[in-house]
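B., you asked whether I could sanity-check this one before it goes into the benchmark set. Here's the sequence:
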Amino acid sequence: MYRLILKIPHYKNAKDIEVLSNNIFLARESRWEVREALALNPRIKPATVQRFVQDTDWTVRQAVSTHPLLTPGLLDSLSQDRYSATTRANVALNPRTPAQVLSRLTRDEDPEVRLGVAKNLGTLPEDLALLMQDTAPQVREYAAAHPFTPLEALQDAKAEPSAHVQRVLMLRLRPLTEAAVQEALKHRRTSVRLVLAGHASTQTDLLDRLLKDRNLLVQSLAALHPGMPAALEGQGEHPRRIADLLMARSDITSANHLTMQGRSGNICFALALAGNPKTPPDTLKQLSHHAHPEVKIRLIQNPSTPAEALIQMVHHPRWRELIQTHPNFSSEVQAQVLELELQEARAWDASPETLHRLAHSRFLEVKLLVAAHRNLQEDTLHFLLQDPAIEVHYTLLEREGLPETILNSMAQESPIEVRRLLALDERSPETALLMLAADTDQTVQMKLLTRPRLPQSVVTKLVQNPHQSITVVQQVLYRPEVNEAVLLALALHADPAVRTWVIADYRLTPAVLEKLADDPHDPIQRQVIQHPLTPAAALLKLTREHKHLWSQLVKNPHTPAEALLVMADDPLYHWCAWPRRNAQFSRKTPSLLVYWMVKRFDQHHSLYRQIGQHPNCNPQVRHLLNRVLD
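And here's what the prediction gave me:
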């Protein structure tokens, strides 16, 4: 009789049932049937619930494992029940179960328990990633459908053998289209509806449909969805728990009601209240101690979260960067963040991962400590090179044993002051010096030229730099590393003064002179003719192309006989000399033409006499001269 009465909460004699359920003597009843029936009654007092949690009979503990008055401590006690897997599974499904208890149940030997953990919204992401590798396909299916499962764990499970898990993975990893939604709803699996209820792209009309789903977890996810309007109209048609969730998200719910819901310990209410701007500050401060990361993310996204709650969360490195964008990021929170980051950066055994995270800090003091830390890895060094603060670059340059790749990057990406120092640094490899030689700043190029030794390739790169100045070129010519390649490059310089310096250089070679013979500048051509190392081919080329230089060429003792023959066999001279030699000018010949022809003949006559006196004048040239001069 006791069992029958206690199992019917809405028995017509409700007052008698309340009296019976609150009777402590029934809890001490020796018959387990009575205790089991009483444990199933939702009206028993918390003290009776606690007594049944410690009951010696496993059936009683199993009956009380679904009671709504179970506290996190009692759930922790029930999760360690070794005799009933159903008890542990009920604890795993309870939204009030603490995250650390769920982490322990993730490794339970019974798959039903692990399935309950996969269905709980309070399960941590790292535990969900572990459940993605479970041996039971149904556990993997619900872990893949969980909205807080890490994306990396989903991507690692692409070779999943189960068709149901593959369907869930496709919905999670691909864009949610209307065709994909209709195809997914045909299968009528709870896991598919869970994915749709937690997907960010789910439309409002589908959320309204999922809000009336037969599965309570699907309803909860739909009620917590950011796209679901938190309106109070029409809440009477929803279950009480779903109506309470919508009220927890509503901005017109009273503060007292929100405070009361925040004390429930339910993960669903914690998620709803953490994102509600109307949640009282004390409740938000209390939620900042919650272990689930999604609760903290919603708190950080909530503009009403007070500075005290932010201070509670800055102790975890994961939330610092997000907190720094919060509108309530006050000077007090900033000072707390700075103190924590300085403490981490000063630790001599700080891990490379910690240093890489601290390299993203907004505080210069922290980045300077990171730049000088001995455990810094190359990827963090490359990241710090992108920092606009020049002090960070100075600190990096002072490090011992910098990799060659870092020095090369500094030669390209660092500020100009750092590049000047790098040009003087003896550790700079040849590749970094080549990059500095191609620098657009002339002061960097001048710093390179003050080094005691420079590779030949760097000197060549300096003279090929289009951003060089005359001063840089002049300093290059003073370097002992100048070779024929450098002089050849300078022989093509746009400034005639530079080409004149090249001709005056003591390291000049015939190849450079042959290149300078093509110079269009007349003074440079005359200097090439006067140089004793000018090759015969260059002189012959000048003879053929520049007649106005013949008077200069004939004075050069190195002018070859071929060039002399070209000058002696000038057809223009013969045309001018024939009438002068025979005095056969016509009366109709213009006087100006006669003057020009006579003057031209006189010039060539003097030139031909010099050709005849040249040391390279051979018999062929003399024969031609005698025939002309007779």
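One thing to flag: The first helix runs from residue 2 to 6. Otherwise nothing jumped out at me.
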